[in-house]
Specification:
- Its cofactor is FAD.
- Pfam families: Pyr_redox_2, Reductase_C.
- By secondary structure, the protein is α/β, with parallel strands linked by helices.
- It is 23% helix and 30% strand.
- The structure holds flavin-adenine dinucleotide (FAD).
Length: 391
């Protein structure tokens, strides 16, 4: 039994690193400990489906080891949290170590969904962590044909990166277009066009019914009976919050750890941040965001709230991006699939669209239009009438 006290951050990704950094920036001088189930230093995930997969880099570390030494941040790696006793403020790790916390910040991210009916064959991958990206890259080196199941952001990026490695790709999506549930059908169709132009066989409105092979995957059968040869399958059908280890904690969990608008969870001295956290929106509903820039925004709110300091009063405009081929797709604001979409520019590859809800500009989505996307920030923040941007 060991006790340490101070702030414990469970999770070894972006949210853990940013929170630890913010604690020191906010002049918290007590002990800070990061507990991660991974052996790596906290690292960045966006390159995993892009530069790492395309073998352009292996360096995704967010901060070098010296940063943690210099800032007196203890890293407990390769020993994840198994449970938490919120009444007694105790954390138990996978190896049975018990730790006492003054404040606990949960930053455990997501677990990729798998398809339980798929057999256990070589060549079937998911992509959430560094080791999975390297494993996929190694097999992609000798693969001829990949089937990517799911055309969300990660599926689309993987399809693009595999094309870059010279692999034939079939992208299978049960919805009518890629990204349809996030950005709606109009933008989804433009994204499908982009992939088709790069030689991806995009098949929408159809799912996968079966995967076959002996030792390794050889065949994928679609719902419509089509049989596809494949020596690589990547399942990109989304993820769920990594909260299984909290099953007996008594914490309120509903599509993530339910928090107030400062990241405070339902038990005293427990907080949550990043992909695993469902924060209360200023309009009163709960929102769980799975995007990179949200993490730093939340750290800037959570840490001062935890330390009893003033929290920022400005609300940042949500932002995320996705790199597919040479096109950076950027989303600013809160575009939703059922908004009215105004495509104002389209040159056959690049595009710009404003999203209208209740007469105001709710968001902007651009493909290869960085300046124009960012220019809409103040209008979105102000809830400007849609006519202001369509002008
Ligand atoms: C392949 C990929 C590409 C992406 N590309 C983009 C992009 O282009 N643009 C964008 O905006 N966003 C992108 N994202 C999303 C972005 O990376 C995430 O929003 C961000 O990583 C969230 O950080 P996090 O710390 O909350 O979660 P994570 O980065 O997932 O970190 C969670 C950490 O907690 C660890 N953990 C889990 N359970 C336990 C436990 N019980 N005990 C201890 N540790 C535990 C995990 O192993 C992991 O290290 C991408 C994500 C992925 C996976």
């Amino acid at each position: 039994m060991s006790t340490r006290g101070g702030v414990f951050i469970v999770g070894g990704g972006l949210a853990a690193a940013r929170t630890a950094e913010q604690l020191r920036r906010s002049e918290y001088t007590g002990p800070v400990t990061i507990v991660s189930d991974e052996d790596h230093l906290p690292y960045d995930r966006p390159p995993l489906s892009k530069e790492v997969l395309r073998a352009e880099t292996d360096d995704v570390t967010l901060k070098p080891a010296e940063f943690y030494d210099e800032n007196n941040i203890t890293l407990l790696l390769g020993n994840g949290a198994r449970s938490v006793d919120t009444a007694n403020q105790k954390l138990t790790l996978a190896d049975g170590t018990e730790l006492s916390y003054d404040e606990l910040i949960i930053a455990t991210g997501l677990v990729p969904k798998r398809i339980p009916s798929f057999p256990d064959l070589k060549g079937i991958h998911v992509l959430r962590n560094f080791d999975e990206s390297i494993a996929l890259r190694q097999e992609a080196g000798s693969a001829r044909r990949a089937v990517v199941v799911g055309a969300g952001f990660i599926g689309c990026e993987v399809a693009a990166s595999l094309r870059g490695l010279g692999v034939d790709v079939v992208l299978v999506e049960p919805q009518p277009s890629p990204l349809a549930s996030v950005l709606g059908g109009q933008i989804g169709d433009l994204v499908a066009r982009l992939h088709r132009a790069e030689g991806v066989d995009v098949r929408c409105g159809v799912g996968v019914s079966e995967v076959g092979g002996t030792d390794r995957v050889q065949k994928v059968t679609l719902d419509d009976g089509t049989e596809l040869d494949a020596d690589l399958v990547v399942v990109g059908i989304g993820s769920h919050p990594a909260t299984e280890w909290l099953a007996d904690s008594g914490l309120e969990i509903d599509n993530g750890i339910v928090c107030d608008d400062h990241g405070r969870a339902s038990a005293p001295h427990v907080w949550a941040i990043g992909d695993v956290a469902s924060w209360r929106h200023t309009l009163g509903h709960q929102v769980r965001v799975e995007h990179w820039s949200n993490v730093a925004d939340q750290a800037r709110v959570l840490v001062p709230a935890m330390l009893g300091q003033d929290t920022p009063s400005t609300v940042s405009v949500p932002y995320f991006w996705s790199d597919q081929y040479d096109v950076k797709i950027q989303c600013l604001g809160e575009p939703e699939a059922d908004d009215v979409v105004h495509v104002v520019e389209d040159d056959g590859r690049k595009f710009l669209a404003y999203y209208e809800r209740d007469g105001v500009v709710a968001g902007v989505v651009g493909g290869g239009m960085p300046g124009k996307v960012m220019k809409a920030r103040s209008k979105i923040a102000a809830g400007a009438p849609i006519a202001d941007v369509l002008g």
